[in-house]
Amino acid sequence: MSTNRKLAVPGAGGPTYMVYGDILRQLFRSFAHRDDASFRAAAESIIRDERAKNHRLLADDLERLLTRRPTQLNGAGLAAKRRDDLPTDKERGFPLIDVAEFDLDWSRLVASSDTLEPLHRLVEENARADLLSAAGLRPSARALFYGPPGCGKTLAARVVAGVLARPLVTVRFDAVVSSYLGETAANLRRVFDFVSTGQWVVLFDEFDAIGKDRDNALEHGELKRVVNSLLQLMDAYRGDSLLIAATNHEALLDTAVWRRFDVVVDFPRPDFQSRVLLLRMFLRGFPHRRVNLESVAKSAAGATGADLERIATDAAKRAVLEGRSTVTTEDLAPALAAFRARPDAQRPADPAPDASDGSISRKRSVRRSR
To answer: Is 1 inside a domain boundary?
Structure first.
């Protein structure tokens, strides 16, 4: 980024033009001296510059961070305040949800454009809900993430919550599902009542636990009543929270459940280029210049993001235990062998065009989101 660009900084006598380097110096100097007015002026000029370059998501993220109320940043205080307010299972007293905050951004996600683009749209709609409301429109409020385990669905929900600067509410199905007749549906109502009271990102992980196909002859009547209740609750929901359901077993979902979601996002196993980017990200804390990541990625065909993280972590631990700070190919070889020996390892061939030569289709272009 050039430091010679000029930005306009508002002043009493009109805008004062400063080069970008001076803006950064003002930003850091005002922060060090706790000069809130100067800090805000410098920050706002950067936001205007990013918006002028059509970097809308970045500008919106910076603006939300700048205007966020102090209480929103105090995760420990919020957690303490909410503990008494959390919905609980009536019979056992277990909390039905967990609440957490995540300081994550788009840089944590590596995925194809087919996955990232609907996520970006989902966040932008919810971040600019006031603009949509002025036009008589509502943002997408229900999203379904599906794909194999370890491919980033839960991480994506945390990133969405982080970018929107909202707490993440995770529904605890171990507490929601009850053996008492009618209590599971009642627990779901308590969850929906709670999330309707504020702006949250709500994650229904392992959603197939309650959204199973009602036509399956092996399912009992109580579960079918739960699915009916779930559909009614989703239809009636009009709150400001963003609901995200995630499943590893989309084939088990009731067909009527799919129609309740405004956005459906596929999280497939990473292809060749994604595997290279993921390995580079997981090894970023350890020098690895002599490692051919392309070769490692090709050998790890079929690996999920979680598999690749385990491979990189195992290699890093081996290097550290041997007194080295640099990861080598010899460190990665046993980690790769251990992955290939796992019974759950799947190694489908990469789709055409041959990703091993670096070529990828435009539709499935892979990038690390910024």
So the answer is: no
